[in-house]
Write a structure and sequence with these properties.
Four Helix Bundle (Hemerythrin (Met), subunit A); 71% helix; 10 helices; mainly alpha; 253 residues
């Protein structure tokens, strides 16, 4: 045979076997597809629900601040999901899991849900009836704060591979005490605090901002329970709390 025209037998065999492996859905491939479908379903559900709350209560699709919020919320979320799917699917799986085993944390989820519903509906009604108008600059400033907090959120995900949406001590989990975790014990909540409080600013709703302040006692309740679980089940966490004094905001909380 002419060299370079026909592949050697070993290469042909290797190529065929790789093709057969790709065509045969293995357990890992099935799990990846299941995770992808789960992520897409939750993403689309979130888009539809938020759109219904904002535009439904506003009574119009001309609520430009709502479009702005949905854009800066869901576009980065979709891209981050794709990155996690490729780079760290296990972390994505943890972030999609919202089934809390502890009663106290189920209460936190319930209160948070009520808070978000009230805040988004109030923003839409404020747009419909014009109760309190704020300058467009407030929405743009809120958008900048929102995106900065998203960057902070992404950095927390990069630093801590054990992050889960549920309160638990994972197998082989270790205490993270570097980077943002060397400044505050809960940088994730620091980022979500700014993230959530900037949402009503983007929407141009003072009433929604007041409602979103409820996140502070809600997250305080979650942190109390979370730290109790970590101190009991995670070796070295008690020492870490003595080393890093601030929970969420340096020199304040």
């Amino acid at each position: 045979m002419i060299s370079g025209v026909m592949m050697p037998y070993d290469e042909i065999k290797k190529t065929v076997l790789q093709g057969l492996h790709f065509m045969r859905p293995g357990k890992e491939s099935i799990m990846s597809r299941k995770l992808f479908v789960q992520g897409i379903v939750k993403f689309v559900s979130g888009v539809l629900l938020l759109g219904l709350l904002l535009f439904g209560s506003a009574g119009t699709f001309s609520y430009w601040q709502a479009w702005l919020l949905m854009g800066i919320l869901f576009i980065p979320m979709f891209l981050a999901g794709l990155v996690m799917m490729k780079k760290n699917p296990e972390l994505l799986k943890k972030r999609l899991n919202v089934k809390e085993e502890q009663t106290e944390q189920r209460e936190v989820i319930l209160y948070s849900g009520i808070m978000f519903l009230a805040a988004f509906i109030a923003a839409g009604l404020n747009e419909r009836f014009g109760w309190i108008r704020v300058p467009a600059a407030v929405s743009y400033t809120g958008a900048v704060l929102f995106l900065l907090s998203y960057v902070l959120y992404g950095e927390v995900l990069r630093e801590n591979a054990y992050l889960s949406r549920t309160i638990e001590v994972q197998e082989n989990q270790k205490v993270i005490d570097t980077g943002l975790y060397g400044i505050v014990r809960h940088p994730m909540y620091m980022s979500t605090l700014v993230l959530f409080l900037s949402m009503p600013l983007v929407l141009g709703s003072v009433i929604s901002f007041v409602i979103m302040l409820a996140y502070i006692p809600i997250i305080a309740k979650r942190i109390r329970n979370e730290e109790a679980v970590l101190e009991e089940g995670l070796p070295g966490y008690k020492e870490y709390t003595k080393k890093v004094h601030w929970k969420v905001i340096p020199y304040i909380w």
